[in-house]
Design brief:
With 520 residues, the protein is of the alpha/beta class. 40% of the residues lie in helices and 20% in strands. The structure holds nicotinamide-adenine-dinucleotide.
């Protein structure tokens, strides 16, 4: 197999490429809503039990989804545990890898069509939607190669008269529970990891983006994943909760909020009657990502990088910047310059290529951002707001806050929207103290020119992903394996070495090779 490389993103500066996007969106809009069925084995039940809508035009239905009933969840669990895990687990790693590569090719052929669906269903601006599809392809390509590595086992010390072998076996059934903000890449990444390692997978996608989930299951099924090894169970949180507590589930791969993640960790720790294993939870959760700006930082670089980190996709990336811890010597200058940049942000529909900030995912998110902005105004100061914000759609006003007290919820809780707060610090050690006081440790950033400062911050910051002198979003598979520490995650890294080991169980076989004759 050729070495892994990242899928190249589209060159949106080229007019013919942009024209193809418009055509893809027009074709998408001309089709009826996408169907997201409950899909178990060969059975597809289509329904409009709930729908997803365009956050920029909430009257537009994007997908019609069936909601998995308790009986369907039971049927999916029975099929996966009784047949899927066994047949797929017995499939050679080479064949599993081949199928994942087939799914990557399927997505590659339809990448504009899928990106158009993301533009509508999650209000992902084109570059973000394209990036999400590329990341999904990367996960398939990367984990396909990882499956082959895992099948080799690991070298152990051998001594005369003894043969030692370490091999990894699939754990069984994986429940994948995913968020809406990377509606193809994240569910596909977790699903591909479970499948690459020979597990059967039950996917419970986010209720906001069932259409994207249906597409990725189609990709995997058409590429050859057997029906009993992969089910799609759309629905609300209760469907996820039912999977988490079931004794037939071995591994739970979750990405989403802290609240839900911690509940999953607690529930999965129980060992119900009949369960003969410990469940493993792979949980990637929320953060409160901070960027430290030292006094010698080049503000010409800092301002665009912070704007991109905080406001692209309306601050709804788990890696998005929410706090800036700025050296007092440059604090006022930075607030002024950032404020100018925030005021002129182009807030608009995801499909428009000049949009900087699209709508947030739903009304509740819009209201949440507004509540935190009010709190920032009450306890501190609003340094800037974007000027023009459309009325229709779930638009949240991009906002820059400053002068907040250290215990403000605006500085300590995940808002997950376009609100950035700047804090004044005496020096970099104080910035690190503040950052270290947070229970979150997902991403962080530093702008500094002195290499000693860089070393100091690298040593002190607990974040899973630290970015130095650049924006703090846009992790790439194999280049920046991604995931948080502390309450932001179980410390595992999606798209990196070691990730697949969470989906397998190690077994060591030791054989005494000093045979004393052969009994026949
Ligand atoms: N660390 C990361 O890599 C990463 C990546 C993307 C998003 N996130 C986080 O995800 C959050 C945004 O996503 P969201 O709003 O979809 O999160 P969420 O926690 O509300 O939902 C995530 C999934 O959990 C399901 N769910 C809800 N209640 C459940 C329950 N009781 N039991 C089992 N499943 C349940 C939902 O239906 C959904 O499928 C943010 O906090 C963001 O930081 C983290």
């Amino acid at each position: 197999m050729t070495p892994f490389t990242n899928e190249p993103i589209l060159e949106l500066r080229r007019a013919p490429v942009r024209a193809r996007l418009s055509e893809a969106l027009a074709a998408h809009d001309a089709r009826p809503p996408v169907k997201a069925p409950v899909w178990i084995g060969g059975e597809r039940r289509e329904a409009a039990d709930f729908v997803s809508t365009d956050p920029g035009a909430p009257d537009r239905v994007v997908a019609e989804a069936a909601a998995a009933t308790p009986e369907e969840v039971e049927a999916a669990l029975a099929l996966a545990s009784e047949r899927g895990a066994r047949t797929w687990g017995a499939t050679p790693a080479e064949r599993r890898a081949e199928i994942l590569l087939g799914a990557a090719a399927w997505l590659r052929e339809r990448r504009l069509e899928i990106a158009a669906l993301e533009v509508r269903e999650a209000a992902k601006p084109w570059p973000e939607a394209d990036g999400d599809v590329c990341e999904a392809i990367d996960f398939l390509e990367y984990y396909a190669r990882g499956a082959l590595d895992i099948a080799q086992g690991a070298p152990l010390l051998q001594v005369p008269g003894e043969r030692n072998e370490l091999r990894w076996s699939p754990r069984g059934v994986v429940a994948v529970i995913s968020p809406w903000n990377f509606p193809v890449a994240i569910p596909l990444g977790m699903t591909a990891a479970g499948l690459a390692t020979g597990n059967a997978v039950l996917l419970k996608p986010a209720e906001q983006t069932p259409g994207c989930a249906a597409v990725l299951v189609q990709a995997l099924r058409e590429a050859g994943v057997p029906p009993e090894a992969l089910a799609l169970l759309p629905g609300e949180g209760d469907v996820g909760a039912a999977l988490v507590k079931d004794p037939r589930v071995h591994t739970i791969a979750f990405t989403g909020s802290n609240k839900v993640g911690l509940e999953i960790v607690r529930t999965a720790a129980e060992v119900p009657d009949g369960q003969r294993h410990l469940k493993r939870v792979v949980a990637e959760m929320g953060g409160k990502n901070a960027v430290i700006v030292d006094s010698d930082a080049d503000l010409d670089e800092v301002v665009p990088a912070l704007v991109a980190s905080a406001f692209v996709f309306a601050g709804q990336k788990c890696s998005a910047a929410a706090r800036v811890l700025c050296h007092e010597a440059v604090h006022d200058a930075l607030v002024e310059r950032l404020g100018g940049a925030v005021e002129v942000l182009q807030v608009g529909q995801a499909e428009q290529l000049d949009t900087d900030v699209p709508p947030v995912i739903e009304r509740e998110a819009q209201e949440r951002v507004a509540r935190y902005a009010e709190e920032a105004e009450r306890a501190g100061r609003i340094a800037a707001r974007a000027r023009d914000v459309p009325d229709e759609g779930w638009f949240a006003t991009p906002t820059l806050a400053a002068e907040l007290p250290a215990d403000s919820p605006v500085l300590n809780e995940e808002i997950f929207g376009p609100l950035l707060a700047v804090e004044r610090v005496r020096d970099v050690p104080e910035a690190c103290d503040r950052l270290d006081a947070s229970p979150f440790a997902l991403t962080a950033g530093l702008f500094a020119r002195n290499p000693d400062t860089v070393d100091y911050v690298v040593d002190r910051v607990p974040a899973g992903n630290l970015y130095v002198n650049r924006s703090i979003t846009g992790a790439m598979v194999a280049r920046q394996p991604f995931g948080g520490n502390r309450l932001s995650g179980t410390g595992t890294k999606a798209g990196g070495p070691g990730y697949l080991l969470q989906f397998v169980e190690p077994r060591v076989v030791t054989e005494n090779t000093m045979r004393h004759g052969l009994v026949v």
